[in-house]
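Predict structure. Chain length: 71.
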Amino acid sequence: MINIESAALYPHFDRSLSGVGRVLRPGGTFLYADTRWRSELARWESALARAQGYGLCRGGKSTPTSCGEWN
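Prediction complete.
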């Protein structure tokens, strides 16, 4: 499942993560890229940590060329 630059508009990010967990097959991959203010990162990382079954594979800044590394 891929989510690119839209989750910042979700009213309840944690609920959205639960929805992803329901439809993602076991061992599946959820690729998430979004713009976040540094001040929001701790809250965002907390939501990911609370969601069961999620682990951060790689975090950081993305560039137009770094997206190709996922293929």
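Summary: Residues 13-23 form the longest helix (11 residues).
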